[in-house]
Amino acid sequence: MEQIPLNKISCGDRRYFEDGIRTVDFVLAFNSDDYKVENLKKRKIFESNLENEGLHLEHDRSQHIYFVKIHAPREVLYRYAEILKIKLPMKPVPGEQKIFEEECKLNNDTFLEKIFTFVRIPSDKFEAKTKCIHAEFQRKYITLFDCERPNFFDSGTRIYIINFMLERQHFVGGKETPNNLGIEKLLADGVYGWAYTLHDEDERKLLLSQWATLRKWIYLQPLDAIKDYFGAKVAIYFAWLGFYAHMLIPLSILGILFFAYGFMTWNSDPISKQICDMNETTLMCPQCDSKCDYWDLRKACHASQFNYLIDNNMTVVFAFMMSMWAVTYLELWKRYSAILVHRWGLTGYSLEVEHPRPQYLKKLKKDRKIAKKLEMMDEESLSNFEMPFWRTQFIPSLTSYSLMLLSVSISLIAIFSMVVYRMAQMASHTIFGDANSMAAKIMAMPATAGMIDLTIITLLHYAYTYLARILTNWEYCRTQTEYDDSLTTKIYIFQFVNYYSSLFYIAFLKGKYVGYPKEYNRIFNLRQQECNPGGCLMELCLQLAIIMVGKQVLNAIIENLFPYIMKSIKKCYGKKMQTKLEKRNQWSEDYHLQPWSSSLMFGEYLEMVIQYGFVTLFGLAFPLAPLFALINNIVEVRTDAFKMLKHIRRPIAQRAHDIGVWYNIMAIVTRIAVTSCAIIIAFSTNLIPKLVYLIHTGDTDLTEYLNFTLAYFDTKDFEIQPTLGDRSKYINVTSCRYADFRNPPGHSEPYERPSVYWKILLARVVFIVLFQNITGAIQTVIAWAIPDVPKKLVKRIASENFLLREYIIEYEKKQAQEEAVDATTNDIATWINEVDGDDESLSLRSSKDEGSEELCDTTSL
């Protein structure tokens, strides 16, 4: 039994058996009023099987919730560490110190290490781990492992081993099948109500004070301590989130510089200067049919200046740098995760064979034909049994994905409804007839629409998440991994359409197919929306800022208030039921916390990947998006840590070597972002028209560029004569201007497309193709140039494997020599015994011969 000195038990640490020696590693709980004979029998068999495996169990029945405390002794941990091929620290291996010294010298000599020493974790709080080589544990080599190390089995590893055992113990007598296997099935059937592991008060207080607080935002995360406490899967999430935040720093600086360039060159923009310094009135055509007046282009002065902040000579450079940043971030993350995985002894880890989900087995029982087949199968055949696709899985899968497409269509309809709402508002409101309506055109309408979009998006977010779970439950997902992958695909497709569709509309569609005053393209007899006087790029900027920042603020409020709300509800409910559970020890205290679920981690990943899409897909229109993302992520790391330590039960530790399918999603988004940036630059900025104008006229000062982009219209040619209102100053207007490339009224082909329009369109298409292919090619080169695993790490792994192999060979040689010596010693001892036996037999024979001679003499006498 593993002994823990009594002087190590603090007053606040109530995680021990009644003997005060054995720690409580895991807890099962159920209601005291559960007297069902079947449940009692299942619990008895299940707990008996756990004890047969070597686990120690102790019951706490002092309150209305009964607890089963579980402790794993060292012998059990040794056995299952070998079964699960867990890598554990070894004793010093000859030659390892040279490897560590070279690595330490290389790390300490780097320029960045010297600059950023102030962000390192205080060594007096989290002691640096003693460097050692990890190897797969084998009991026959137990003397080679550093078993006396204080944290040889960290709490995460202990929990992982016990959970593995709980998932594979049967709870019925007779034939053992996956249908009567594991704690998950017992929880699903209500045999046990709860199964969780306990927080460690001392470690939790340390993490709360040094990690889960905004006061420590500048410091690096104690990833090794997080891994020991929560397990590798949770630690990988926090490592990725921290790495993502650090990678946003250079992009945020780049965005600030881009924005600052716009401010510094504000007055040098020829388009803004032409609009603001006009001496004559340039009347623009009304933007709606009713109560919309002609308006003076000079009123768009501030809008054009604001638009220049994001549409200037550096726009292409910023878009290119963002694309390079995205692929560099993904490649560097692979390198960084490889270092972490090796440090945590998870190199070469692969998922073990998963047992079927209890929900899957329950669905199998409903099909009588399949249920009969299952009864005739042995355990191995049943574990590998796959449902026939066309007869059983096809209809649920088809229904699930059909409803998913229907839901996506509903989301698109919601966005389309918002477009129609804006068009109807344009047709009915009176603000455009007012002389001071330019602020409403530029700010009020986009801001109002953005807030409404955010509200709809937030509501659909929860509706889609709920619907995705229902649809996935219909499918026959055999293992938890299959279920998680299917759920991830559905939810991300939902949220991709939900969050990005309105932004794609503004970036790619709005104002592109409006028509012209003589023949507007209408929907439900309503004119399509034109870009506001500042341009569609400015509106995209406002929409992105509202949705992205608003989403971050709402998520922060919900995540931080929800635990307190649930705690209050549970407290009120407990008072009504008059069954309050007293917090006498750690297991009863953790019982009051919110249960841990894998969906919590899924939600955190989804939130960050959606944010990554905002930054890469549309960050060109909002250069400060990386900065807001950085600020949010700095807060997110600390608030997520606080939530998991303070309000949620301790997660069951799991092994992992990467962030899973989320990396592939971000890689796809990165490729889409290149095309998105190319289209936004080509169709929503002035870059291409300026280039064509320069080539066409040779006017480097762009003195006539504004006139070049505005077409003339004869007011008598209006399709529907606009109603100007009683206070209009422009009653007898004969002509107006509108933003388009068309022939003037007096041309032989009035209002038709001139050749310059087709040149601009061709230039836009060529730019998209060139930008996409050149940027994509450079991204491919960067991905090839940055190895997934650092060369130093590859060299170190090779050196460690060589040292381990030689070390084990020497150990085996010594063992063989000792066995040979022992065998020789045994042979000599056996020979000596045989010789001694022969001497005794000879003496007996001689004595017998003498006796026989005496007898003969006596007879002769």
Compact description:
With 861 residues, the chain is mainly α. It has 27 helices and 14 strands.
Amount of beta strand? 5-15%
Unreliably modeled segments: 1-13, 430-436, 852-861
Overall mean pLDDT stands at 81
**Any idea what the radius of gyration is?**
37 Å
Distinctive features:
861 residues, mainly alpha, 27 helices, 14 strands, Anoct_dimer, glycoprotein, cell membrane
Explained architecture:
With 861 residues, the protein is mainly α. Among the domains are: 431 residues, no CATH class; 31 residues. Helices cover 61% and strands 6% of the residues. It has 27 helices and 14 strands. A four-stranded antiparallel beta sheet has the order 2-3-1-6. A hairpin with a 2-residue loop joins strand 9 and strand 10. Helix 9 packs antiparallel against helix 22, helix 17 packs antiparallel against helix 18 and helix 24 crosses helix 26. 32% of the residues are buried.
Secondary-structure blueprint:
Blueprint: E1 26-31, H1 37-52, E2 56-60, E3 65-71, H2 74-83, E4 87-89, H3 96-108, H4 111-115, E5 134-136, H5 155-166, H6 183-189, E6 194-196, H7 201-210, H8 223-230, H9 232-264, H10 270-276, E7 283-284, E8 295-296, H11 301-310, H12 315-343, H13 358-366, H14 368-375, H15 379-383, H16 389-428, H17 438-474, H18 480-509, E9 515-516, E10 519-520, E11 522-523, E12 526-527, H19 536-577, H20 586-591, H21 598-618, H22 625-646, H23 661-684, H24 687-697, H25 705-709, E13 710-714, E14 735-739, H26 755-785, H27 791-860
Antiparallel strand pairs: 1-3, 1-6, 2-3, 4-5, 7-8, 9-10, 11-12, 13-14
Helix pairs in contact: 8-9, 9-12, 9-22, 10-11, 12-23, 12-26, 16-17, 16-18, 17-18, 17-19, 18-19, 18-21, 18-23, 19-22, 21-22, 21-23, 23-26, 24-26
Transmembrane segments: 237-263, 308-327, 398-421, 442-464, 491-509, 609-635, 656-683, 761-786
Subcellular location: Cell membrane; Membrane
Region (Disordered): 842-861
